[in-house]
Design a protein that fits this description.
11% helix, mainly beta, extended, 53 strands, disordered N terminus, seven-stranded mixed β-sheet
Length: 819
């Protein structure tokens, strides 16, 4: 087998989910069965009919109910010996009840059930919830507690006290459904039975140690941890696990090896805390995972040291517990040996890492062919490799959740992840998750297929020719899949491992603003601000198609009238602007030229909260796919910015400064909108008022300020000009089309002497009411923001800057000015 350098990739290990479980029973083969059903099957007390159907939604008969109780009482063998004639003529003469004669004889003899006064048993009659509860009570010796009581109230009350009806919607005289009967039995498994103490007049009953589980020779191990499996201890057989329980005062209560015969792989529960049911042969036949789902982290390691481990997805650092253990490829390692980007299962205990099972693979790939024992695949280097399984003594295959899988599960288009052990063995994780559909959006690190986005995986590759050749994921290459049918192979994290398809010569329509053009003897290169908000260089397939752009003066700093172009274009398979597949409009200052039939220039007007607008009277619609850009910043510089669709929908756009270019068709959807005026902002006609409570800060290219806004509370806003939103300023602002807060100085009244009286301030000859929820702050000497104050504290100050809403003070800062 060809070797490739080792790489760290995802191993997604999911907790075994007890609440549902797959069991193959004829008609119910694909159903997820409840936990109590799985437990009953594991105990051997629940069996299907002659076709294997469990019939959980059908009523249970008296004979069937009795058989279940005899089985959980550990008396199956005794019932077998008591088969034959019964005291009930209707049973003896009914062929359909011959299977139940031993159960009936034993159940009647044990006092669990009785016949009817007419001497019949009516074994095929339906059992009510009260009758089923009575049989369970008598099987546990609780019959003495209901004798002489009112039927069925006494039975129903006692059963409810004991918890037999937990999660069962029981009505006493309604036929009991088989599934509910299984729940009632499951609720009874660990109830301690009554035992007789004393005799004669001194006879009484007390709680003993026996339960149905103990009568079945079943030991229930609670809160034990799976600390070893065969993969980490070669002294264990493949089906063996070590269970450990630490009790009070750190005393080891259990430390023993058991055989695992439950339908769960040892690797699946490795490191987890479980409840285990064990038979008298020390075989674990049922497992209930106790580790909380929130304590099982599937994550990537950012850094690991002796003290702690940093995880990327959780964005958190966790300390190692005192007795923590870490494995890489089933080999115990020191914590500092864990490599960055290792991925796997991390188990927490009280907020600290108790266990980590991480994986480093020899290779990752997508299967291209299976020929007997030879598996051919393409790896993330785009190399074609193969695995010959005959080269290995042992082959271990797992599903993505680390449950057992078979070699037969590895097929064409399977994602495989594998590493080799030291003893000529190989471990293969197989993931069969394939998505097919049409690509309708491409981003730098995502692709959207039929409306669902999939993130680029760490080792993503593509094939544009259905597997004839492969290449690494790049935006230019993936864009060739636009509007094409593809197949996406997902990795263990549900991210893209491979996109395969056959792209056409050109992409779908793309839109942007040409911000620069240059040419040499071979080709022209256009710099385009694209619909992803990035400036990207594209080579033109045709040498002379954009000659008219070469003479433009692309002055990004606004020293001259801005010159640029708006463009619709397609890309060919090589990522070039396809010849004769584009249309553009030159913007030279306020002039434009070369209009295409679907390019319109005019004044754009729209009403707030409308999904359409008019351009010189022509109507267009705004959709989720409409691309909206403002070409110039407030200073007239060519610095395009995207505008969110829902933001434009909210705005009222009218008056001046609304000249725009629209690509689309009149009375249909606008594909691309470019606002040409530097002063375009739009207005939502609603002002906000408040006090800036922290100094503005910069994130990326934008500034932000924290403002306590009247009626809204404290929030962070992107601001148009940081100087307008300094700490301690009273502000009135609205939100423009770029989601920026724009300050309106005209609404602020500054530096006024005032007096305060019972909810009102007087400034000069004017008196204003102060809203009881007004945002009020005091300033320190020197004008620095001090603290938030109540309205009653306004009497302590004499100088104010404030803002009115409907002639009511809604925000202000106050301070004292000495005479």
């Amino acid at each position: 087998m060809k070797k490739a350098r080792k790489l760290l990739v995802t191993l997604l290990v999911l907790a075994f989910v007890l609440s549902t479980f797959n069991v193959g029973f004829a008609a119910e083969a694909e159903e997820k069965l409840p936990a109590e059903v799985v437990r009953a099957q594991a105990l051997g007390i629940l069996r299907g009919d002659e076709k294997g159907n469990l019939n959980l939604d059908k009523p249970v008969t008296r004979a069937e109910a009795l058989a279940l109780i005899v089985r959980i009482s550990g008396l199956e063998a005794s019932a077998e010996l008591m088969k034959g004639q019964t005291q009930f003529a209707d049973v003896n003469s009914d062929p359909s009840l011959q299977w139940a004669t031993g159960y009936i004889n034993l159940g009647v003899g044990q006092g669990i059930i009785n016949g009817y006064p007419d001497g019949t048993f009516k074994g095929n009659g339906q059992v009510t919830y009260a009758e089923m509860a009575k049989m369970l009570l008598y099987a546990m010796n609780y019959g003495v507690t209901v004798e002489g009581g009112v039927w069925p109230a006494a039975v129903m009350g006692k059963a409810d006290d004991l918890g037999i009806f937990d999660k069962v919607n029981a009505a006493p005289n309604v036929p009991a459904l088989r599934g509910d009967v299984v729940k009632m039995i499951d609720n009874s498994l660990t109830i301690k039975h009554l035992v007789q103490k004393g005799y004669g007049d001194l006879k009484y009953f007390d709680e003993g140690d026996d339960t149905f589980l103990s009568k079945l020779n079943v030991e229930e191990l609670e809160d034990v941890r799976v600390t070893e499996i065969a993969r980490v201890n070669n002294k264990l057989d493949d089906d063996e696990i070590r269970l450990v329980k630490i009790g009070k005062d750190d005393k080891e209560e259990i430390n023993k090896v058991y055989s695992l015969i439950a339908d769960v792989a040892p690797e699946e529960i490795f490191g987890l805390e479980i409840d285990a049911w064990v038979n008298d042969d020390d075989e674990v036949f049922f497992v209930n995972v106790k580790t909380a789902e929130k304590d099982i982290l599937l994550d990537t390691v950012k850094d690991a040291s002796d003290d702690d481990i940093k995880l990327l997805d959780a964005d958190k650092t966790y300390k190692w517990a005192d007795d923590a253990i870490a494995y890489v490829n089933f080999e115990e390692v020191d914590f500092e040996e864990i490599a960055d980007n290792a991925y796997g299962k991390v188990v927490l205990d009280r907020g600290e890492v108790a266990f980590a099972n991480l994986f480093e693979f020899d290779n990752v790939g997508v299967v291209t062919e299976v020929d007997g024992k030879v598996i051919k695949f393409v790896d993330y280097y785009t190399n074609e490799e193969d695995i010959d399984l005959d080269d290995y003594d042992d082959v271990y295959v797992y599903n993505a959740d680390f449950s057992k899988a078979d070699v037969e599960d590895i097929d064409v288009d399977s994602a495989i992840f594998f590493w080799e052990g030291e003893d000529d063995d190989i471990y293969i994780i197989v993931k069969n998750e394939v998505v097919e559909g049409e690509v309708d959006r491409v981003k730098e690190d995502k692709v959207r297929v039929d409306g669902t986005e999939y993130k680029k995986g760490s080792y993503a590759i593509i094939t544009l020719d259905d597997g004839d050749s492969y290449e690494a994921w790049t935006l230019d290459a993936v864009e060739d899949f636009m509007d094409e049918e593809v197949k996406v192979i997902l990795d263990l994290r549900g991210q893209v491992l491979l996109i395969t398809g056959e792209s056409t010569a050109t992409s779908g329509d793309l839109y942007g603003i040409v911000t620069y053009v240059e040419s040499d003897r071979a080709y022209e290169i256009l710099t385009i601000f694209n619909e992803e908000g990035k400036e990207v260089d594209y080579r033109a397939e045709s040498k002379n198609e954009f000659n008219d752009l070469l003479d433009l003066k692309f002055d990004p700093d606004g020293n001259e009238l801005p010159q640029y172009a708006v463009i619709r274009y397609k890309l060919n398979a090589d990522g070039e602007i396809a010849e004769n597949k584009s249309a553009h409009l030159v913007i030279n200052g306020e002039e434009s030229s070369k209009e295409d039939k679907d390019i319109y220039v005019g004044v754009l007007e729209k009403e707030a909260d409308k999904k359409y607008f008019r351009l010189d009277g022509d109507r267009f619609y705004i959709t989720d796919d409409t691309i909206i850009v403002k070409a110039l910043n407030n200073k007239g510089e060519l610095k395009p910015e995207l505008i969110k669709n829902d933001r434009l929908i909210e705005l009222t756009v009218n008056g001046d400064n609304n000249k725009a270019v629209v690509f689309g068709e009149v009375n249909k959807d606008a594909k691309f909108i470019v606002f040409l005026d530097k002063d375009f902002a739009g207005s939502d006609e609603d002002f906000l008022f408040g006090v800036v409570i922290d100094d503005p800060w910069k994130e990326g290219k934008d500034y932000y300020a924290e403002i306590n806004v009247f009626g809204e509370g404290i929030a962070v806003y992107k601001v148009n000009d940081r100087e307008d939103f300094l700490k301690g300023k009273v502000v009135a602002f609205d939100i423009n089309s770029k989601d920026e807060a724009v300050f309106d100085n005209d609404k602020i009244t500054t530096n006024m002497l005032y007096t305060y009286d019972d909810g009102y301030i007087t400034v000069g000859e004017d008196t204003y009411k102060v809203d009881r929820n007004a945002v009020l702050y005091s300033l320190k000497d020197g004008g620095e923001l001090d603290k938030k104050i109540s309205m009653s504290k306004l009497d302590d100050y004499n100088k104010i800057t404030f803002v009115l809403d409907d002639q009511v003070v809604v925000a202000a800062v106050v301070w004292n000015e000495e005479d």
